[in-house]
Each structure stands twice: as C-alpha cells, then as structure tokens.
Amino acid sequence: MDRLWTNARLATLTGDGLGLVEQGAISVRDGRIAWVGPAAEAPAATETIDCEGRLLTPGLIDCHTHLVHGGSRANEWAMRLEGATYEEIARAGGGIVSTMRATREMDEAALVTSALPRLDALISEGVTTVEIKSGYGLTMDDEIKMLRAARTLGQARAVRVATTLLAAHAVPPEYKGDADAYVDLVCEQIIPAAGGLADAVDGFCEGIGFSPEQIARVFDAAKVAGLPVKLHAEQLSHLAGASLAASYEALSADHLEHIDEADIAAMAEAGTVAVLLPGAFYFMRETKKPPVAALRDAGVPMALATDCNPGTSPTTSLLLMLNMGATLFGLSVIECLRAVTINAARALGLQGEIGTLEPGKASDFAIWNTSEPAELVYRIGFNPLHTRIKDGTCT
C-alpha cells in the first residue's frame, strides 16, 4: 500500500544543511521511501496523512550505547558525591568489574528484560536506530550472550539494532592484569565466535584500558573476520588512538576530548566520524572539551550519542544530548541535527540505508509537534515527538 505524509515541513538532511522542504510530502511504498518533494507535486496514494504543518525529520539514530548490562552503579555515584575517587571505588569492587559481575549473573532473557525500559525511553523520543555494544561480559560466552540479547531487543521492538563487539573494554579480574593474554582470547576466540552477531568491533584505548599496540591486534583480527571497527579514544589521555582508528578506516572514533591536530587530519582523510558524548563529559565533570572548531574546520563529520551506560552516562535521552552538544560543546542547531541523523548513520556504516529522507532509503522518520528544527535542540526535559514511523508504519 502507498502512504503519503503531506503538509509537512521536511528536514531531509540532504546536502550540507537541513535540506528543508516547505509544505512538503513524503511517499512510502513497501517500507521504503518512494518520493520526497513539494506537496503540490506529490503522487497519488492509497492513504494520505495530513501532518498539519509539523516538522518531519529522519528517525533519530543513537550510534553509541551500552544499553545491555546488569546491575546499577547508583551507589558508586553517591560515593563519588561524598568524595570517593574512582580508584577507591574500583578497589572496593566497583567500576566496570561490578557491572561485569552483575552482567555475568544474568541470563539472556533477564538482560533483555532489564534493557527494554532503556530502549523504550529512546524510542519514545523518535529514535529508530540504536547501536548496542557488548563489553561487560569479558568472557566468550558472556560477550556472545550480550550480543544475542541486543539482537533480541531489535526483534522485540520496531527498531533497527546495530551490534558492536566490545570485548576489548577492560581486562577481567581472572587475567590478573595480563592484558596481552586477554587480547589473545579476544582475537583468537571471541571475535571469530561473534560472526553473524556483531556488525562491528570496538575497543577502549586508554591507560586504564588497552594500548594502541593491543588495539591494533584486535583490529587486525576484526579485519580477518570481515568486520569494520570503531574505537573509544582520547577520552582521558592522548595515546593517538584516533589516528590508529583512522589508519584502519574506522567507522568512528568516540569521545575525543584529547585528540590533536594529527588525529584530526587522519580522521578527515579516512572519513572517520567523530562521535561526541556530552553525557559522559557532564556526568564525569570533565573540563577538557573535544576540539569541535578544529573538527569542523577539517571537515570531520560529527555525531552525538547518549553513551548510555551504568557508570559514566546513565541517560536514555538523545534529545538531551542535542541540547548538551549545543550548550556544552558549541555545535550549531544544524550540526546537532546532522549529528543524530546522517552523521550517526555514517558512524554505523548505514548512510546508504538511513539518516536522510531520500527515495530508496528505509522509511524511518519522526514527526514533531513543532515546525522549527531549533525546538528539538533548544528544550530541556521536554519531548515534542508527535509520531514515530518505522518502515512506513506508525509505532
């Protein structure tokens, strides 16, 4: 059946800006966009929906989350408010290890059940695609369990789920600090076992994570497995992880507070997307911001994401990240909206399928109770979503 959404202010996100079409319409056939343009030129349709002048955008894309996990770290956060350091909390059994233990204790069904409210919160704000990482299991069986749970979430809700294997997230305690031995396990067993369940491979390149040399081994194994890569890089220090990621033509490098000019040049050359995560910046009370002006000047595409995770960014509001991207990092309205549509799609390697309103792409879009794009970035704690459409169907 042909459906036509008409009398809308379209933000197609094509070209370099918002790609606005005043008094526009969008035609959908068999779950794909068939036509986009002025309403006066729209083709006939079996069903017509009047948008009454509302803004219509591509469905939003959250391209960096840790949505599947066990437990909570609220008590650790309360300890930090009382003056405890991250190291003190870690010595007391907190940090990633506490989430690892809680995640290992849960079966796949329990992980799905616990993640659904977080996913539903994103969906309620117009998100139609979400990336979900593993990284809290840190054994072959538990990492695979997390990836299966992520896939199940995509079946339980009308949402596209892109899965990322983040086994190189931390060294599990049973390896007693022997990161090289754990990297052997990741490269020789976990990555090969993730075939068909992971869409990409990620790592944490930091002094408290893995060295560039160890990450290079992970990326080499990903290449053998035919999987693209991305990287948590330059969040806490500068190890040139972003340059390493670019040398492997990574889809994205994420966080990036400490990148330098060489990293930026390498990312620009490779087309690697800079995924900025203002939720973690805010929650951890960081002061060094990612160099947005330098990224902008170099033409590096910038995306925004929630980084939803229990330890450093316990948020499920991508709309809040739009406001934070503007107020904390200095992105413009146009940059913020591109950051959760076309550039987020690029960060997942899905720019040919989603992220803009163009014929042939998936009919994933959102209709908002406003005609002004700035409203999506301007408001805090207010959800202007009117209707969410996934594959041509209102959800």
Concise account of the structure shown:
The protein is α/β, with parallel strands linked by helices and 395 residues long.
Question: What do you see in this structure?
Answer:
The structure is a single chain. The mean pLDDT is 96. Strands 1, 2, 3, 4, 5, 14, 15 and 16 form an 8-stranded mixed β-sheet that branches. The chain has an 8-stranded parallel β-sheet with strand order 6-7-8-9-10-11-12-13. It is globular. Helix 6 runs parallel beside helix 7. Helix 8 links the parallel strand 10 and strand 11. The protein has 15 helices and 16 strands. The relative contact order is 0.15. The two termini are 17 Å apart. 36% of the residues lie in helices and 22% in strands. It is an alpha/beta fold.
- Give the oligomeric state: single chain
User: How far from one another are the termini?
Assistant: 17 Å
CA-based gyration radius:
21 Å
**Which structural category do the helix and sheet elements fall into?**
alpha/beta
Number of strands: 16
Question: How would you describe the shape?
Answer: globular
The amount of beta strand, in percent, is: 15-25%
SS summary, helix count: 15
Major beta sheet, specifics? Answer: 8 strands, mixed
Helical content band: 25-40%
Poorly predicted regions are none
- Mean pLDDT across every amino acid position: 96
What secondary-structure arrangement, pairings included, does this model have?
Blueprint: E1 2-11, E2 20-29, E3 32-38, E4 47-50, E5 55-58, E6 60-62, H1 74-81, H2 86-91, H3 96-105, H4 108-123, E7 127-133, H5 140-156, E8 160-168, H6 179-193, E9 200-205, H7 212-224, E10 230-233, H8 241-247, E11 252-255, H9 261-270, E12 273-276, H10 278-283, H11 292-298, E13 302-304, H12 318-327, H13 333-339, H14 342-347, E14 365-368, H15 374-378, E15 385-390, E16 393-394
